[in-house]
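Quick log. Single chain, no ligands specified.
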Amino acid sequence: MNKTASIAGAAGILGAALVGAWATTGNASPDAPAPRAAHAASQWNLDSVHSSVQFRIMHLGITPFLGEFNEVRGEFTLDPDNITNGSISIEIPIESIDTSNETRNGHLLASDFFNGRQFPLIRFESTGITRKSGNNYALEGNLTLHGETHPVTADMTYYGTAEMRGTQKVGFGATFTIDRTKFGLTKWDGILGNEVTIEVGIQGNAS
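-> predicted structure:
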């Protein structure tokens, strides 16, 4: 074997050893990029532009009636690696209610319903998050509506994180089912159902 062949062989052995060493540390090659670490921050500001609150109630027992609130604000603590350590605080201005009918919107703000002048905000403060399976959780907390506060439990789904224009984002959804009469909303019994479903979709920006 000539000198050139010996040098080439030694180089090949050295290269193989280096590749093997990188492989045992979880990298395919020395040039492979390191995996992006999960977002470590846990404090998020609610992105009101990409968050939503919708509700559903039966009318005359025959039609699901849908509406929404056009404004939601708040903040939350959510660690993507440990969702159960999170806490969520949300406020919804009553005056942002939208049922696609201005006359009905005004009626809902009156004393027959939400009494928006006296009780301008719906508030939710979480007290705990418990994992059920996969990305599904039970979100427990206190809901303040129409001047009354009661404990509620929602079905929560964690959807993950994303990055947009250099800003880290996180998203989750929650479904609440409440009895409106427990919050003093008792008028129009027989016309409106007592059960109300509230669908919340929340996106947050890293603070």
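Helices lie at 3-24, 102-109.
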